[in-house]
Specification:
CATH architecture of the largest domain in chain B: 3-Layer(aba) Sandwich
Number of domains of chain A: 1
Low-confidence stretches of chain B: none
Oligomer: heterodimer
Strand order of the largest sheet of chain B: 6-7-8-3-9-10
Mean pLDDT of chain A: 90
Number of helices of chain B: 8
Distance between the termini of chain B: 24 Å
Mean pLDDT of chain B: 88
Number of strands of chain B: 10
Largest sheet of chain A: 2 strands, antiparallel
Number of helices of chain A: 17
Strand content of chain A: under 5%
Structural class of chain A: mainly alpha
Number of strands of chain A: 2
Strand order of the largest sheet of chain A: 1-2
Distance between the termini of chain A: 53 Å
CATH class of the largest domain in chain B: Alpha Beta
Shape of chain B: globular
Order of helices and strands of chain A: HHHEEHHHHHHHHHHHHHH
């Protein structure tokens, strides 16, 4: 009997180890199932919204037969569908919007109206696959390996085992490591294959999980070499997990947030709303002058003769955006700086680093959020480019012209 | 005749304390050597140095001519070790335990050989397929002894082997050790059972506070005098 076969048989008789491996398999399977369900739900929501959006746009087109009203009353759906691998790490999709219904009004407030705290280093996070492999997998490994030698010492078998075989502990530990790796990776590989995530993604994700487990194996091996009792080992290892998986990420978040201050999304909304609302009471020139500085092409068509004109209204929406431009840029740049600093500091906490790797693979990270926001901005700019000539040149409202109105195009 | 086991002026210190101090003795092949001593005398430490778990600060230990420190892997293949109150795996039965531990030592035995060894230690046939957590302490010890027999090693190191055995089982065990000596296997056992040691040992070494303070040889006929050893053990005299 080879060492591996013998120890596989031995492991198969170790009920405690089997229970932990089963719990690991169930946890990973549940997390994957939950992630698949969430992705399916988000996709279904987007499909439903797209259908509803088309119906509503047609309805609005019949109801409002002038460019100003059409621009004001019509909502335009934008959305960011989850990637094929998003089931493994829902990441920022929990807190950052992945769908917006925007209008031809000031944009920045619309983007940040659902702004929430960045949970990049939030304490525990959502129960998705990334959470299981980052937070729970170290605990499973600790429970499987912490008393590998200490238990044998406690029961007086250690010397007998040592005297009987060499390399036993490496085989025993390696087998438990491999069994845990299979229990954790099998659901991911099955789900990833079913969703068409791609071999490269699954390979990278699997390698990241195994590297993370290797790190914890090294920590466990270090404590096992101390010759401590099982309870001391467990206490020390649980302490290490608490520090590296919970305390350090929380500390890093606090340090990053303190070091890099950014405006609240709420500040952007408030500033913009005040700018827009104030515009009603200010002289027209207070709106049109800053507007024309950015859009000199409409200088010859910017005279406001009556008390209300749509081009004036949309101009002060535009100026609302201009007023919060610095805030919005500060917000985005600050968020990016926080993300970069968090990425560097996450090397200090392997569980947080693994979650970031998964979010990056799944396109659910801060970068994905930034790209989606920029796509919304680009689309909104297309809407303005479409409506401004109609408004400033008094173009006749026709269905043919309306059919040229841009529709948000899914980029992923 | 070359010694099967030799401790050559070994001194062992643990945590700054001298546990063995300049201890020397030899065990001839096929002899049973009993190291007697009270708690903390250094008996188990001596066994652990022969197993290579402890390295002497000075001196050397040899097993069948091999220096333990230099050839640990080879040495261990020649040794069957029976720890004190050996607890084999409680979730496995006698057959599974023996097969597993034999496999660890790269040895094999078929069911017939295992049954023969278990017969030799008088473990009831009906109990052999039961998990060890249903065994008494004495029954578990018998399985461990059977395992040591099946290792078929030329040297047996026994740490308090009769601990936990009832008087009948002790007598059976003592007879078993003598029969092993007749098979030319070398036995080094540590014990504080004066009566049992005198019954089976060819030689007794008396350890006290880490020093070998006495030695008693089996006479040409009969056994080592129990009274004499007991008196030395109790500190009344020595040889």
């Amino acid at each position: 009997m080879t060492d591996l076969l013998r120890e596989t048989w031995f492991l198969s008789r170790d009920r405690a180890a089997l229970v932990w491996l089963l719990i690991a398999l169930i946890s990973a399977s549940c997390a994957v199932a939950f992630g698949l369900g969430e992705v399916a739900s988000q996709r279904a929501t987007i499909d439903r919204l797209r259908a509803a959006d088309a119906v509503e746009r047609d309805y609005m087109a019949e109801q409002y037969r002038d460019w100003g009203s059409a621009g004001y009353y019509t909502f335009h759906l934008t959305y960011d569908p989850p990637s094929d691998f998003a089931f493994a790490a829902l990441g920022q999709r929990d807190s950052s919007p992945w769908k917006h219904r925007i209008r031809m009004l000031a944009l920045e407030g619309q983007i940040y109206e659902t702004d929430a705290a960045n949970p990049d280093f939030a304490l525990t996070g959502r129960f998705d696959y990334a959470f299981v492999v980052a937070m729970l997998a170290p605990l499973f490994l600790i429970l499987l390996l912490h008393d590998l030698k200490a238990r044998e010492r406690a029961f007086g078998r250690f010397e007998l085992l040592e005297a009987s075989a060499s390399g036993l502990w490496r085989v025993r530990a390696g087998l438990r490591f491999a069994a845990l790796g299979i229990a954790l990776l099998l659901p991911l590989i099955l789900a990833g294959s079913a969703t068409g995530s791609g071999v490269a993604f699954l390979f990278l994700a699997g390698a990241a999980v195994l590297l993370h487990l290797l790190f914890w194996w090294a920590v466990v091996a270090w404590t096992n070499r101390r010759g401590w009792t099982a309870s001391v080992n467990l206490t020390a290892l649980f302490g290490a997990w608490l520090v590296l998986a919970v305390v350090a990420p929380a500390g890093i978040k606090l340090a990053v947030d303190t070091a890099i201050e950014i405006p609240d999304g709420g500040d952007i909304i408030l500033t913009q709303r005040e700018a827009v609302n104030d515009a009603w009471d200010l002289p027209v020139s207070s709106t049109m002058e800053p507007f024309l500085e950015r859009h000199p092409a409409w200088s010859d068509h910017a005279t406001i003769e009556s008390t209300f004109e749509w081009k004036w209204y949309y101009a002060f929406q535009q100026v609302g955006d201009q007023n919060v431009e610095a805030l919005s840029i500060a917000y985005r740049e600050g968020r990016d700086r926080r993300d970069r600093l968090s990425s560097i500091l996450s090397w200090l906490t392997p569980p947080a680093k693994l979650e970031r790797v998964f979010e990056s693979l799944a396109n659910t990270d801060v970068e994905a959020t930034r790209l989606y926001e920029n796509r919304v901005r680009a689309y909104h700019a297309q809407l303005r480019t479409f409506y401004y000539p109609k408004l400033f040149l008094d173009a006749p409202f026709t269905d043919e012209a309306l059919s040229e109105r841009p529709v948000y195009v899914q980029l992923r | 005749m070359e010694a099967a086991l030799a401790a050559n002026s070994i001194t062992v210190k643990r945590s700054g304390q001298t546990v063995l101090n300049d201890v020397s003795f030899q065990v001839a092949a096929g002899d049973v050597y009993a190291l007697l001593g009270g708690n903390g005398a250094g008996k188990s430490t001596t066994l652990l140095t022969f197993l290579g778990f402890l390295s002497p600060d000075t001196g050397t230990v040899e097993v069948l001519g091999d220096d333990v420190g230099a050839n640990l892997k080879d040495v261990r293949l020649k040794i069957a070790y029976l720890p004190e109150a050996a607890t084999l795996y409680p979730h496995l039965n006698a057959y599974e335990n023996i097969s597993y531990f034999l496999s660890l030592a790269k040895a094999t035995a078929d069911q017939g050989a295992i049954d023969a060894a278990l017969d030799r230690v008088s473990l009831k046939e009906g109990a052999r397929s039961n998990r060890l957590d249903t065994y008494s302490k004495g029954m578990r010890q018998k399985v461990a002894i059977a395992l040591a027999l099946l290792r078929d090693a030329p040297v047996l190191l026994l740490d308090e082997p009769t601990s936990g055995l009832d008087p009948v089982a002790i007598d059976e065990f003592n007879a078993l050790v003598r029969s092993l000596a007749e098979e030319k296997r070398t036995v080094l056992m540590v014990t504080h059972d004066v009566y049992g040691a005198c019954q089976i040992a060819d030689r007794i070494g008396l350890l006290k506070d880490g020093e070998l303070v006495g030695a008693f040889d089996r006479p040409q006929s009969g056994q080592i005098d129990t009274e004499q050893v007991h008196a030395a053990f109790a500190g009344r005299s020595g040889s």
